[in-house]
Amino acid sequence: MTRLTKKVTDRLRGVPEHDIDEADIEVESTAHAAAGATAVAVAMRRAVGQMGVRRAASTLTRLNQVDGFDCQGCAWPDPDAGHRHVAEFCENGAKAVAEEATRQLLDREFFAVHSVQDLAGRTEFWLGKQGRLTEPMVLRPGATHYTPISWDDAFATIAGHLRGLDHPDQATFYTSGKTSNEAAFVYQLFARSLGTNNLPDCSNMCHESSGSALVETIGIGKGSVTLEDIHQAKLLLVVGQNPGTNHPRMLSALEEAKSRGAKIIAINPLQEAGLVRFKNPQNAKGLTVGTALADLHLPIRLNGDLAFFQAVGSLLVEWDALDHDFLDQYTTGFDAYVDHVADLDWIKVEASTGLTRAQITEAARMIAESPATITCWAMGITQHHNAVGTIKEIVNVALLQGNIGKPGAGVCPVRGHSNVQGDRTMGIWERVPDHFLDKVRDEFGFEPPREHGLDTVASIEALRDGKTRVFFAMGGNFVGAAPDTEATEAAMRNAALTVHVSTKLNRSHVVHGGEALILPPLGRSEKDLTGGRPQRVTVEDSMSAVHASQGPLDPPSEHVRSEVDIICSLALATLDDSPVPWAAFRDDYTEIRRRIARVVPGCASYDEKVDEPGGFVLPHPPRDNRVFDTPSGRAVLTTTPLEVLEVPKGRFLLQTMRSHDQFNTTIYGLDDRYRGVSGGRRVVFVNPDDLRELGFAEGDVVDLVSEWRDGVERTAPSFRVVPYDQPRGCVAAYYPEANALVPLGSTAEKSNTPVYKSVVVRLDREGRGGATDGGSHGSAGQSTGSHRVDEPHHLS
To answer: Closest Cα to residue 430, out of 208, 217, 595?
Structure first.
């Protein structure tokens, strides 16, 4: 292939010849509809460009099908078998498959040309576009380049480090949400066989707050609805969530609900295109007119959701819009709740939410009049300091009207990664309950550790403090996803060994320990012939449905291995005289599923059930029988103090968020067409009135500086200002670029989830390192921070 031909081919496959030039950013008007013909065109262009016509067709037609493989993207559930479209995927699902199934390969010659120092200067976008990793690579202590290593030598290297630890808790085993149930089960088994519960996962950074609140209030940390419930609901609240980008197939479910007479309330600081109008590409109306979705949009101020739901609850009590039979039979805490909301301070509610009493009352009337309501939420709720309290208030409102355990009603935390819920079900949790450990002991004949392990934030702190020496990541991009980028990177560099099981290059590979390994696994779209036989894996979606997944494509290289193979082979190299049948697990995943059936609650006859078309649904006592596994045996209404997050004059609350052209830290492209931005990513969305007050104009470039109580200023430089309609005092920017601004110690109460959605920042003119022209500011280097106020007269 000539050099010119390769350049042309790379361009077609989406491989950037150069890195992002933020000077190329273009800003246009925002969109007022999602999907449609444009989404189809973009999806096909990306899929064909990276996979080719034949490969794209053979792959996409198997995506989310009963006999196919599960999408690598979000965890939105599939329709029942027999009710799926031929094209049962969305634009971003097609992008996710194209990223994994790309024909672009990244081999040893690439690493010979590019030093780690060179790669460290590249963006996530450029790194991810270099192609699929094809063989294990090692960075030896003091080396400047990654070099090839055999699998046996890689396992021996890791085993040597693990055996050399003073204590098993000096190792941490991270998991991303894409790991299959089978891989997750043997992964947690390996860590506990070593003697540690250090099993942080991406749940710690996303829905940990949901699990914490739901376990306390309804006895199980999962949502209580099915896909059919969404279709049957009479009212849906979509809160702190942008389904048009993050869970696009949810729009089809909302459209179905609308066709049956449902109403929808969107509660979000930004008005997202997907909830304005959905142009369903599966039908003629969708390609032309589309369906208006949200009947009401409430542009709530960041961190105002707790106050909103508490105010709604107070109005339901005042109007006696309550299900008294349900409350009497199934709940506890009602009297204390009534006393609490009786003293509701509407001045504080309006200050916290940025909404008027009339707006909140309008929404409350819709809730009061609805016979079946579902509340859906995502990261816009879970990543605040008071996230657990906010979700408890969501549950309170549901319980007041008996909206748990009846058709078309319930609570619905929408997971953003394809098997993050399944990983937790399989035991990937640093605080797994004793009854799970008892089952592990009884099944495998060893005593697992009982002391709770490290979550994500605690893992970073342990690496920073030298308490952890080995960091092993099963998928994901830990460095890119974690908060406080500078602190996280310093912590990772303090490790003796970092290991990443990854399909593609990312930031975590160039921020490494003294020794580093990259191990390439099979992708979900690829055939798994481990053990000389066709293997399949299983996954769990947001609504507790478990189903099989089996890829159709040939692997990118003979040197890649399945995640199950990698874990079991490492266990064989590390553990002497283990009672766990690692070799049998590696050769036949059916053996893993048989043990899952005996260990994991609700998974009896697991292998047989996943043989059924579409799989099976795990039991959910509150949904199925209105049974609540709480100390009282009842669902719990709770009381949470109403606090207002006040920000000093001239400062703003920042939320980090995705572009439409990304999934988590994977950057598909540079077009956020729903928000009107293309060509770059370093933008900050600001209310036009705030811009005028500060003396900024559209296109100005600013540094974002976060301020927190530790007195440390964290800076993310060179963001272009984009005027955008949102509540005053709120700004937004994309992650991972803005993750540098999130203090490591700023986490949600109880769940310890990083506070990505309410970061106090100021906007400095680029390079000035000091105050803007507007507002009042502390001097450079001095943090004025934020504080919570409990009395209205403290409000500014």
So the answer is: 208
DSSP for 431-467?
T--HHHHHHHHHHHSS----S----HHHHHHHHHTTS
Rounded Cα distance, 681 and 665, in Å: 12
Spans in the chain with pLDDT lower than 50: 1-13, 770-796
| 3-state SS track over 305-353 | HHHHHHHHHHHHHHCCCCCHHHHHHHEECHHHHHHHHHCCCHHHHHHHH
* Radius of gyration (C-alpha) of the chain in whole angstroms: 25
Task: Answer for the pair 715, 704: CB distance below 8 angstroms, yes or no.
Answer: yes
Report the predicted TM-score, pTM, of the whole model to 2 decimal places. 0.94
CA atoms within 13 A on the CB side of 93: 29
Rounded distance, CA 417 to CA 289, Å? 31
Q: 3-state secondary structure string, 469-520?
A: CEEEEECCCHHHHCCCHHHHHHHHHCCCEEEEECCECCHHHCCCCCEEEEEC
- Cβ burial of 220 (10 Å; 0-12, 13-18, 19+) is buried
Residues 604 and 596: their CA atoms lie apart, in Å, by 8
Cα 754 to Cα 77: distance, rounded to the nearest angstrom: 27
C-alpha to C-alpha distances, 549 to 71, 90, 128, 168, 394, nearest whole angstrom: 9, 18, 24, 33, 34
> Would you state the pLDDT for residue 177?
86
Any idea which residue has 């963001």 for tokens?
Answer: 719
C-alpha span between 318 and 623 (Å, rounded)? 27
Residue whose C-alpha is closest to residue 542's, from 253, 752, 304: 253
Contact 353, 301 (CB under 8 A): yes
Is 146:152 a contact under the CB 8 Å cutoff? no
- 265 sits in the region (left: phi over 0; alpha: psi -120 to 50; else beta) called beta
Q: What is the pLDDT of residue 18?
A: 81
Q: Coil, helix or strand for 121?
A: coil
Q: Where are the beta strands (DSSP E) in 696-753?
A: 701-706, 714-723, 730-734
Helix (H, G, I), strand (E, B) or coil at 792: helix
**SS3 assignment, position 761:** strand
Q: Which residues contact 83 (CB under 8 A, 6 or more apart)?
A: none
Domains and CATH numbers, the chain: 105-202+419-614 (3.40.50.740), 208-413 (3.40.228.10), 647-794 (2.40.40.20)
pLDDT score at 766: 86
Calpha distance 596→591 (Å, rounded) = 9
3-state secondary structure of 722: strand
753 within 8 A of 496, measured Cβ to Cβ: no
Q: What is the pLDDT of residue 286?
A: 86
CB 248 within 8 A of CB 91: yes
